[in-house]
Design a protein that fits this description.
InterPro entries: vWFA_dom_sf (IPR036465). With 217 residues, the protein is of the alpha/beta class. The protein contains seven helices and six strands; from the N terminus they run E-H-E-E-H-E-H-E-H-E-H-H-H. Helix 1 runs parallel beside helix 5 and helix 2 runs parallel beside helix 3.
Length: 217
């Protein structure tokens, strides 16, 4: 049996050149997100990866108490599909290698970008969609897609993320978007620890209309 009190948060963060205009807000929003998750009951570990036209794992399987402050250095283009595929495949392989009682009972993957795919060379939307749908249906992973100044629901659907778990946000509302994601994840973690299934607790990850309004102009 997996550990019901352990959550592993995987976060994939866009650091392409267009993020420069919201660099400070993104750093502040992510750091506030981490602080709020630290205050949520239960064990939590974090893996952060960032991407432009290259993929970089910033840290892996870090206890949330030891997560450092985010420092973002925007550059490059947006290889979104290749980066999602790499994070999901590497995370799945690492978790599968663990003894069952050391695997997290809850896995949450947050994807945050301000641009459209323009640099992937290996994977297609269909391939990534199949990967995400498999992890969601077979293993109960929860995915959030947060996209700035785009139709995030449409983009999220193209890669297998449920519309209710996708959020369009404005460049000036990064803090509100991160607060919404953090609140939903916190409620999900609490519900899972209380014994709800991943699918039941997953309803708590739904972005409300109030949250969507607060995150847009």
């Amino acid at each position: 049996m997996t550990n019901p009190n352990l959550t592993h948060l995987y976060f994939l963060l866009d650091r392409s050149g267009s993020m420069e205009s919201i660099k400070d807000d993104t750093e502040g929003g992510f750091n506030a997100f981490v602080a709020e998750q630290r205050a949520t009951a239960g064990e939590c570990r974090v893996t952060l990866a960032q991407f432009d036209n290259e993929y970089e794992e910033v840290y892996r399987d870090r206890p949330i108490a030891d997560v450092p402050r985010l420092e973002l250095r925007p550059r490059g283009m947006t290889a979104l599909l290749d980066s999602i595929g790499r994070l999901v495949s590497e995370a799945g392989a690492r978790l599968a290698a663990l003894p069952e009682d050391e695997r997290p009972g809850s896995v949450v993957v947050g994807i945050m970008t301000d641009g459209h795919e323009n640099a992937s060379r290996e994977l297609t939307h269909a391939t990534v969609k199949a990967m995400i749908e498999r992890q969601t249906k077979e293993y109960g992973w929860q995915f959030l897609y947060m996209g700035a100044d785009q139709d995030a629901i449409e983009v999220g659907a193209s890669i297998g993320v449920a519309p209710e778990h996708s959020m369009t946000y404005s460049r000036g509302k990064v803090a509100a978007m991160m607060a919404a994601a953090s609140g939903n994840i916190g409620r999900y973690r609490t519900a899972r620890a209380a014994g709800l299934s991943a699918s039941e607790a997953g309803e708590l990850m739904t972005f409300s209309e109030e949250q969507r309004h607060a995150s847009s102009d």
